[in-house]
Amino acid sequence: MAWRGWTQRGWSCGQAWIPPVGGRSCEELTAALAPSRLLRRRFNFFIEQKCGFRKAPRKVEPRRPDTSSEAYKRSALIPPVEEAAFYPSPYPIRTLIKPLFFTVGFTGCAFGSAAIWQYESLKSKVQSYFDGIKADWLDSIRPQKEGDFRKEINKWWNNLSDGQRTVTGIIAANVFVFCLWRVPSLQRTMIRYFTSNPASKVLCSPMLLSTFSHFSLFHMAANMYVLWSFSSSIVNILGQEQFMAVYLSAGVISNFVSYVCKVATGRYGPSLGASGAIMTVLAAVCTKIPEGRLAIIFLPMFTFTAGNALKAIIAMDTAGMILGWKFFDHAAHLGGALFGIWYITYGHELIWKNREPLVKIWHEMRTNSPKKGGGSK
């Protein structure tokens, strides 16, 4: 009984739990039953090792950008992310699986939707033609109002080219998102969904949303100016529907190339802007019209061919990606440019000219569907 009490005392971290026996204290019984100090030390060592065998699980903390070191230098074109936490995966290659499937699926849906959109546009052209004749006749007999603001807007809109009218909605979306960046309460949401980063918890939707996102006014103005300048040429080459499919797909594809580069090099960080998609537009036009003359907006006296401009841009972005320049996302630029070259050279024949099966299926669905007010037999 005394040995049991001594043993229990060792397990209970030195707190005596039995009363004194025969006038002798627990300490005296312990000394009598353990004649050797060496035995007591060994037993206590065994107990201490037994009690300390299980370790508490270590909590994994999210990685935050190291703004104090020279390895992290924030560009003026991206928002401050000192408070944003990154969650890099312990298996970086697995991080690219979902973005890869999203890129392939979104690209297919974009071109499929563009084919259906073109079918519906062609189908409604006749009705639109007669509606236009009726509207012109009503305008001729309706008394005209001088200084009508709506009339001036319609006149300005009708004077635009098809390409300029197409990109007007894109520019409006970019301006709207730029205004959202100025709202302090939306900063966390904007960083989460409108900047693309493979170390973020949200991977897929920012690949598209960041294409319409600009934090810097200069960045947005430069991108929208280039898009406006090349809009007429690219829409004349591809058409309105095909251009929209190429532009949206280019934004996702260029962000995926950026993901691959960041995972391969370990240089994580947020990216945003329409530069990748605009590089696709620029590369497509320069590939289709290599002898066209281009000039810089601030230096109009210096002109160069579109082919030479494309070679210089690809060389600069390749060097920036290899050397790790951080002012631009050179991997996204390079991915967008290569996609534009590939699509004009091969993609148009492989993708757009093979849309007839999908259009036929859509046509059968439209013609076989019951009309309004009627019933099926």
Can you put this structure into words, describing what you see?
The protein is mainly α. It has a domain at 92-125 and 150-366: Up-down Bundle (Rhomboid-like fold), CATH 1.20.1540. Helix content is 62%, strand content 3%. The protein contains 15 helices and 2 strands. It has helices at 2-11, 26-33, 37-51, 97-123, 125-141, 149-159, 162-181, 187-193, 205-209, 217-238, 240-265, 275-288, 306-323, 330-350, 356-368, and strands at 293-296, 299-305. It has a two-stranded antiparallel sheet. Helix 10 (217-238) crosses helix 11 (240-265), helix 12 (275-288) packs antiparallel against helix 13 (306-323) and helix 13 (306-323) crosses helix 14 (330-350). The longest helix has 27 residues, at 97-123. The N and C termini lie far apart (95 Å).
CATH homologous superfamily placement of the domain at 92-125 and 150-366: Rhomboid-like
Strand content: under 5%
| CATH third-tier fold name of the domain at 92-125 and 150-366 | Rhomboid-like fold
Structural class: mainly alpha
Radius of gyration: 34 Å
Number of strands: 2
Given the structure, what is the number of helices?
15
> What distance lies between the first and last C-alpha atoms, to the nearest angstrom?
95 Å
Major beta sheet summary? 2 strands, antiparallel
Judging from the principal axes of the Cα atoms, what is the shape?
globular
Q: Which CATH first-tier class of the domain at 92-125 and 150-366 would you pick?
A: Mainly Alpha
SSE string: HHHHHHHHHHHHEEHHH
Mean pLDDT: 78
CATH architecture heading of the domain at 92-125 and 150-366? Up-down Bundle
The helix content, as a percent range, equals 55-70%
